[in-house]
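Hey L., structure's done. Input below.
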Amino acid sequence: MKKTLQFTFLFCIGIILFTAFEVKTHQQTPVYKTGDIIFQNSHSSQSEAIKLATHSKFSHVGVIVLQNNQPYVLEAIEPVSLTPLKTWIARGDQKYYEVKRPKQNLPVNAAVQKKLDSLQKIYLSKHYDIPFQWTDEKLYCSELVWKLYEEVYGLQLCPMRALKDFDLSSPLVQMALKQRYGTAIPMDEQVVSPEDLYQSALLESIK
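Output:
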């Protein structure tokens, strides 16, 4: 009888510990959804200038898209690409990244999926927008995310800002501006940065 009670007690303890481990593991490994927004610090030549101008730890952003239940990142690099999530994470500085998701549930239906598929096809034909111009001819990373959300989900994630509203005082930033624009810097050009998206009141962190 005593051995039976001991066995039962140990068995119950084992079940509790296993359940706790499963819950903890699940909490540490969030399940990503199409539309999740992922941020990282890239190793691009403009990364440090972007972080200085925007006072951010991030210089790159993309949108997670599930295809056949596998996560990819739709991102504006040269050219716009659909990158496997693991590859995207490995490419970032120290593999660090954060993911945010709208506080409100995004609609999931055939019409939304059709819009997303169509827009993704259009985006994948485009080149990277080096001068950060707000046109549809080319795209930069945060522009892609902002426009995708507006066109597919009807959400404007954050206000746009004029280039002159960023911190352009750093010599590194000044050099990047000169390389791009020469002396004709478009100070009134409307821009969205990764940090603007990161600070959006419509989003919450999931990782």
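Residues 2-28 form the longest helix (27 residues). Residues 7-28 have pLDDT under 50 and may be disordered.

-- N.
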